[in-house]
Specification:
The chain contains 24 helices and 19 strands. By secondary structure, the chain is an alpha/beta fold. The protein folds into three domains: 177 residues, Rossmann fold; 161 residues, TPP-binding domain (Rossmann fold, 3-Layer(aba) Sandwich), CATH 3.40.50.1220; 199 residues, Rossmann fold, CATH 3.40.50. The radius of gyration is 25 Å and the shape is globular. The N and C termini lie far apart (84 Å).
Length: 578
């Protein structure tokens, strides 16, 4: 028999949002409190959720996005309306571009006022603005639909090709009440939100036939392969075929970078020389020169080098985006790789290994380049340059393979990617497809929160400036994050001058001798000013050991570095100078 107390029990929009998230295994929110979602953050924390509050919504959004990449569950970013929503929008667009599952949840003004443009507080049609930049966008107007809205957002974020989703929650939704039991029944636990997509058997056989007859095969691993968490099968596929592989930056560690089949040190040789290239979770975008041009043996930037491509991807629309894909294998990466392995195993001893000539040529160039790099790293110039500083970081990452490396910058990004080896998957987090700066501190916070492992963020001084205030967040939550700022006094380097001779410094030059280490000290963290490799080593090793929030201001020769790192040609002026 129902009592009066039970029949009168009610719930509201706040509790329904929180209960819907918890029902689906989401226990962490990244965001920034304010009107109209301040009470949502308070009540979420009271309900046992972890609420990580940032100083800027873009950094909270980046944290949510990379949490999604690491966990395969959508990271949640919570923002206020209008300006806060817009601040989170860059992270949402970046998540969609990079295929990171996240949900940007924003409070908003009332629909009836927004639609008539009557001038509400922070009035903005946020759903319309978000829709072109997200994989999906939804608005919930009634409390009884909160369960559906969150369920649809979760499914959209993680199914198929993952991406960013926007969920709009107008302010008056939170105060709506309904019967508690009816509210509980309205919530949805999403069943199989990212179902397996099995590749067609004829597609698998076509790909295997092409791979089997290749004379100079190459495997390219993208961050989609890392996201799939099919690590054992991917390694088995590489090792059983004996094919050299090239990891893209966030795929480093799927197999140890020191693996004998890694062709990373011979990249400029294997890309134009390979005759059959199998892409696993990698797209032929600008990071791979669109599959054509001189990088691939073409005569100019539009010319195709003539390779045949096998592409394993969950999206059929990705095939033929730049060059012809001769053998598309469409499905989730785990299922596709498993099917490929099954076909190879069925052939047993009849599966051919790559020719000795091809393997020998790759090994020869790899050996020469590694030796050349070793000579460069062995030098100890004064002041430090990128190579001597990264020689230290390389040793520390090797000694701490479970630590997570966050990396952004121009030269700081490029040199770190090529010098610092990774031993385990999903331990390197960087700027990804867009190459966007400002991901550093958001990624670092999320990596520490999600993994509980030490995080080392290697930052260019310019890149650090985009999110540097979040060192306060790192200190507030006492996270085991060590930020290393490579300080060369400017964007790319600190040597540009004002051609007019006027009092303003050049646009790329920062304050000389800036002490970034003092910034974290203001919030109770450990700041270290390092001018030598020995000082850098001591500071970072102590930070990893102590797990205390630390910022190391690593002073680099201001003449070190080149404009835009290795993508100078994308700057029209620089291209004309060549």
């Amino acid at each position: 028999m129902t009592t009066d107390a039970q029949s009168q029990a009610v719930t509201d929009g706040f509790d329904l949002v929180i209960d819907a998230l918890k029902l689906n295994g989401i226990d962490t929110i990244f965001g920034l409190p304010g009107i109209p979602i301040t009470d949502l953050t308070r009540r979420a924390q009271a309900a046992g959720m972890r609420v990580i509050s940032f100083r800027h919504e873009q950094n909270a959004g980046n944290a949510a996005a990379i949490a999604g990449f690491m966990t395969q569950k959508p990271g949640i970013c919570l923002t206020v309306s209008a300006p806060g929503f817009l601040n989170g929008l860059t992270a949402l667009a970046n998540a969609t571009t990079n295929c990171f599952p996240m949900i940007l949840v924003s409070g908003s003004s009332e629909r009836e006022i927004v639609d008539l443009q009557q001038g509400d507080y922070e009035e903005m049609d946020q759903l319309a603005i978000a829709r072109p930049l997200a994989k999906a966008a939804f608005r919930v107007l009634h409390a009884e639909d909160i369960g559906v809205g969150i369920a649809r957002s979760i499914r959209a974020a993680v199914s198929g090709r993952p991406g960013g989703v926007y969920l709009d929650l107008p302010a008056k939704l939170f105060a709506q009440t309904m019967d508690a039991e009816a509210g509980k029944r309205s919530l949805i636990k999403v069943v199989d939100p990212a179902p397996r997509q099995i590749p067609a058997q004829d597609a698998v056989q076509r790909a295997l036939a092409m791979l089997k007859t290749a004379k100079r095969p190459l495997i390219v691993l993208g961050k989609g392969a890392a996201y799939a968490q099919a690590d054992a099968d991917i390694r088995a596929l590489v090792e059983k075929t004996g094919i050299p592989y090239l990891p893209m930056s966030m795929a480093k560690g799927l197999l140890p970078d020191t693996h004998e089949q890694s062709a990373a040190a011979a990249r400029s040789y294997v890309l134009p020389e390979a005759d059959v290239v199998m892409l696993i979770g990698a797209r032929l975008n600008w990071l791979l020169s669109h599959g054509k041009g001189k990088t691939w043996g073409g005569k100019d930037h539009k010319a195709w080098g003539g390779q045949k491509f096998i592409q394993i991807d969950i999206s059929p629309q990705e095939a033929d985006s730049n060059v012809r894909i001769d053998a598309p294998v469409v499905g989730d990466i785990g299922s596709c790789v498993s099917a490929m392995l099954g076909g190879i195993s069925a052939m047993g001893a009849n599966w051919p290994q790559p020719s000795a000539d091809w393997l020998g040529a790759v090994a020869e160039r790899k050996s020469k380049n590694i030796a050349k790099m070793a000579e460069t790293l062995a030098r100890n110039p004064t002041p430090m340059n990128f190579h001597s500083a990264l020689n230290v970081m390389r040793d520390i990452i090797k000694a701490n393979p479970d630590a997570i490396l966050v990396n952004e910058g121009a030269n700081a990004l490029d040199f770190t990617r090529s010098i610092v080896d990774m031993q385990k998957p999903r331990k390197r987090l960087d700027v990804g497809t867009w190459g966007v700066m400002g991901i550093g501190m958001g990624f670092a916070v999320a990596a520490a929160v999600v993994s509980g492992q030490p995080v080392i963020a290697i930052e260019g001084d310019s890149a650090f400036g985009f999110s540097g205030m979040e060192v306060e967040t790192i200190c507030r939550y006492n996270l085991p994050v060590c930020v290393v700022v490579f300080n060369n006094n400017g964007v790319y380097c600190g040597t540009d001058v004002n051609p007019t001779g006027g009092p303003d410094v050049a646009p790329t030059v920062f304050v000389k001798g800036a002490r970034y280490d003092k910034l974290i000290e203001a919030f109770g963290g450990v700041g270290v000013h390092a001018t030598t490799p020995a000082e850098l080593r001591k500071a970072v090793e102590e930070a990893v050991r102590s797990r205390k929030p630390t910022l190391v201001n690593a002073v680099i020769d201001e003449t070190a570095g080149t404009e835009s790192g290795r993508i100078t040609s994308l700057n029209p002026t620089s291209a004309k100078k060549k």
